[in-house]
Amino acid sequence: MTSGFNHTALHLPSSRTIGHSFGKHASSYDRFADIQSDIILHVRSLLTATGETISHPWVDIGSGSGLVGHFLAKAGLGKAPVGFDLSRECLHYAISHHHYRNGCQGDCDALPFQSDSLSAISVTSVLQWTQNLGRIFEDFCRVLSPGGTLVLAAFVTGSYQELSEVRTALGVPDPIHVLPEHQLLALVERSGFTITKSSLFQRTYHYASPLKLLRHLVGTGSTAHQDSPPASVFAFSREYRRRFERNGSVPLSCRALALIARKK
User: Fold this and answer.
1) Which residues of 82-95 are buried (b: 16+ CB within 10 A; e: fewer)?
2) 44 Cβ partners below 8 Å, 6+ apart?
3) How many whole angstroms from its chain centre is CA 179?
């Protein structure tokens, strides 16, 4: 669902644009979310290793189609969270297809929940669309009750490196924000959490062509190229092939930090 990284000048889409894009593709998200699904399964393995289960009230922030609730429920680690998302369509899909308890439409930059009111928050493959991560983590800490659980997976520097290189070569700005994993860990701890377990997810995915890769990004709601004119898509495909095609496929590298933390 991401398309590169940039540590200096940020070119993040507006919340309205992000919500519209993901809502438009809510029904296709599960079918194309191979990377996001693997990251959630990695998070699930961390929960299993720590012996933790998620108790209510639990809010899944940036819940999208509801895959977090789906995969955790299958493992008996938690069920029926409250969805929180920019997209009304995604919330409806999570409730109707993945048994979410209910949904709340909103932005993680401004959580509407009362202080010390939640037992758990899950946030996976979401924070790349946000800018002020320090303030966001402080708000996560605010709404959790003492001892409450934060379940997090966030893309980090080096994720989708190939995609970023091609965009840079074409003079196209990167529309997301990620940090090195050590900075992300430090932000979480400074915001009032104790990290109980963390692990780095790393995997390289292969696609038959750059257009197939883009289809997966667009199918999960990525705003990266879906509105690009045909000439731009052709230039992207040609440059990606020139740089990275090997043995009839093109790679896409993923790096994401997964962690379990508790509010102090």
Assistant:
1) bbbbbbebbbbbbb
2) 71, 72, 75, 77
3) 13
Comparing C-alpha atoms, which of 125, 70, 118 is closest to residue 94? 70
Q: pLDDT, tens digit, for every residue of 133-154? A: 999 999 999 999 999 999 999 9
Q: At what angle do helices 88-98 and 67-74 cross, to 10 degrees?
A: 20
Virtual CA dihedral for 38, 129, 105, 142, nearest 10 degrees? 90
> Which of 230-236's residues contact partners 24+ apart within 8 Å by CB, and which partners?
232/170, 232/172, 235/170, 236/166, 236/167, 236/170, 236/210
d(CA 189, CA 166): 34
Count CA atoms closer than 13 A to 151's CA, side-chain side: 33
Phi–psi pair at 170, nearest 5 degrees: -90, 0
Separation of alpha carbons 82 and 80, rounded Å? 7
Cβ atoms of residues 256 and 39 within 8 Å: yes
pTM: 0.90
HSE-CB at 150 with a 13 A cutoff on CA atoms is 32
Closest by alpha carbon to 24, among 82, 99, 86, 71? 86
For the cut 70, the answer to whether the pLDDT of residue 6 exceeds it is no
- Tens of pLDDT, residues 154-208: 999 999 999 889 988 998 877 778 899 999 999 999 999 999 999 999 999 999 9
